[in-house]
Design a protein that fits this description.
By secondary structure, this protein is α/β, with parallel strands linked by helices. It has one domain: 2-Layer Sandwich (Endonuclease, Chain A). Helix content is 41%, strand content 27%. It is built from six helices and seven strands. It has a seven-stranded mixed sheet, with helices on both faces. The longest helix has 17 residues. It is globular. The termini are far apart.
Length: 163
């Protein structure tokens, strides 16, 4: 089953993740976002503490480190030193997976409040989940976790060198 919808700010990407986890039970979460807000990172931490999220990895835009250094540090401290990678991205998607569910969530929303028209598509889609997870897996395999500590210019250089 899949669902496409629009929101005019009535709910956020974080609200959607929470609603999906309420259905799936404890799951592993992967997030790709251009940016995230402090409150939304805190809500993900609450889900981790409660056991709703078993693990979480974050793919963020290379400018996130410069724009939100305190959130970058918090993500590493709470989700683990290996939890974050950087790239040139504007792609917003999540995978929520466990033994029973393979949820792919694609959205125009970042992980923050979005008081505007935003779109989303969500569904149990093992093939799409496998594809999105494969993209994340490749980045985690190719990029040392220390790349996220470099300057935006150095990260851009690394990105350009990857071809």
């Amino acid at each position: 089953m899949g669902l496409f919808g629009l929101t005019k700010g009535q709910f956020s990407l974080t609200d959607m993740i929470e609603a999906i986890l309420a259905k799936t039970g404890p799951a592993d979460l992967s997030i790709s976002t251009w940016t995230a807000a402090n409150g939304d990172v805190s809500r993900m931490l609450e889900l981790l503490s409660s056991g709703a999220i078993r693990s979480c990895r974050w793919l963020v835009d290379l400018t996130f480190m410069r724009r939100c250094p305190q959130l970058t540090s918090e993500i590493r401290a709470k989700f683990g030193a290996n939890a974050i990678r950087v790239t040139k991205t504007h792609a917003k998607f999540c995978t929520i997976t466990n033994d029973e569910w393979q949820i792919a969530l694609r959205s125009s929303m970042n992980l923050n409040q979005n008081p505007r028209l935003e779109s989303f598509q969500v569904g149990h889609d093992p093939k799409l989940c496998q594809f999105l997870s494969g993209v994340m897996d490749e980045i985690w395999q190719r990029q040392d976790k220390g790349i996220a500590d470099l300057s935006s210019k150095e990260i851009s250089g690394w990105w350009n060198d990857q071809g």
